[in-house]
Amino acid sequence: MRFIGLTVRNPKAARRWLLGPAIGPRVAGCLSGMISILILCVLTVSAGCTDPDARDLPPSSAKDSAGIEVIDIRGSGSEGDGVWRLTPDPLLTIGVVAGEPEYEFSYVVGAFRLAPDTIVVLDDDAGELRFYDGLGNHIRTVGGRGEGPGEFEWATDISTFAGGVQLKASNKRIRFSSSGDLISDDSFRWTPLQQYLCPLTFLGDEVFLCDFVEGGIVLDDGSQAPQYRLLHTVWGGQRFDTLGLFTGLATAFHRGNDGRLQAVSDPFERQDHVALGGSPPVVVTLRRDLYELTIMTTEGQPLRIVRRHEAEEAPGDEVIDSLYQRAASGLFEVARADVERLFPRRRAVVGGWELAVDRVGNIWVGVEKERVDTTGRRYDMYEVFRTDGSLLGSVAVPAGARLADVGEDYVLLVTRNELDVPFLALYGLVKD
User: Fold this and answer.
1) pLDDT of amino acid 18
2) Which comes out higher in pLDDT, residue 130 or 244?
3) Fewer CB within 10 Å: C terminus or N terminus of the chain?
4) How far apart are CA 37 and CA 51, in angstroms?
5) d(CA 401, CA 421)
6) Is 57:71 a contact under the CB 8 Å cutoff?
7) Residue 75 has what pLDDT?
8) Which stretch of DSSP H or E encloses residue 156?
């Protein structure tokens, strides 16, 4: 389950890439905070259709002018009762607040369940790849800081391949077997990889990376946003195919009282998301201002487009106001009125704060953050689609958790406790 986009998933690595080891901790911390602020805004999602009659309309399918299938989904639009759920409690939890070092996590880049008896976790702060058994007992640690075989200074991506697990580490790809034996340690020298906001990711021997388009784009509200092209190649290949052009995180600039320009992030986060995964593998893009999914092969051949039309009311003033306030209280505080001037109020906040493709090939779209039920429990909501475009249902996930790996009957999450300490939690996935 891989992600690509203008989202800094490892601010510490980005800071190292930009500034190098010589930068002072105060300046480095400032940049890390600024990067975190740029990605902080999370959305309560609702979009599109507000016609109450749309709730009863079945999904429809048609062909566009290029012959690509377009599927429109309104209302619940899901098969059966359309509800999936996690088991009430995790089947397994790995991690401690303080204790044996092999159970302490600081910054979890990613994790996978390689088999029922093997879970692997990449912790970049520790510079380690750790293996655990099916009961959560530590088996082995590999990697480590350095430049030797299997070692790395920092790592920004972890994925699986037929023989085990692989890391995108510094300027090389490192492969380990499912039992932790080093298979290969290969360097790369691809120019587009110098863009720290466009991380490289692997899918087996296929490679996905991106390069910025000079000048970016100007949005309708006058804000500026980066634009990048997503590239595809194979390991060792010299040919790069462009899969599409995508919009990055929108920013506008406000001149403060001190005369300096201050970057302000778009409260409505209209950047596109890209994810890849599944078997057979697919690339999925999400245009967030429309809640529109494009599903394509890894070579860029479009398979279908899914347009999700919600039948719920647009978010109220309280939600919109909270988004504006969050944007205003960034690293350099900006008046709420100035944020609204830079980013005019939208009728609705539209789909998708997260996008992922699971092992099976189902597409997960995060559609609502921080819902609270009658018991006070907080959770985030996802909608799940098949690659054929059908909506399978919705899933409630503990609030603030991050999807690490999703299989046919399990969900592996990166969670945090009240002290902000990360843990791994394995839940069963029940499909009604």
Assistant:
1) 32
2) 130
3) C
4) 35
5) 12
6) no
7) 74
8) strand 155-161
With contact defined as beta carbons under 8 Å apart, do 390 and 66 qualify?
no
Tokens of 344: 């005019």
CA dihedral 182, 184, 187, 188 (to 10 degrees): -120
Query: pLDDT for 294-319, tens place per residue?
Result: 999 999 999 999 998 864 455 677 77
State residue 352's pLDDT score: 80
Residue whose token pair is 């969900």: 411
The half-sphere exposure of 238 on its side-chain side, counting CA atoms within 13 A, is 0
Question: Which of 432, 430, 415 lies closest to 86 in space, CA to CA?
Answer: 430
Cα–Cα distance measured from residue 399 to residue 122, given in angstroms and rounded to the nearest whole number: 22
> Cα 125 vs. chain centroid, distance in angstroms?
20
Q: How far apart are CA 344 and CA 286, in angstroms?
A: 22
Residue-wise pLDDT for 193-234, tens only, equals: 445 456 678 898 998 888 888 888 877 666 778 888 888 988
CB 84 within 8 A of CB 57: no
Q: Where are the alpha helices (DSSP H) in 20-70?
A: 25-38
Asked whether the beta carbons of 131 and 179 are under 8 A apart, the reply is yes
Pair type for strands 302-309 and 69-74 = parallel
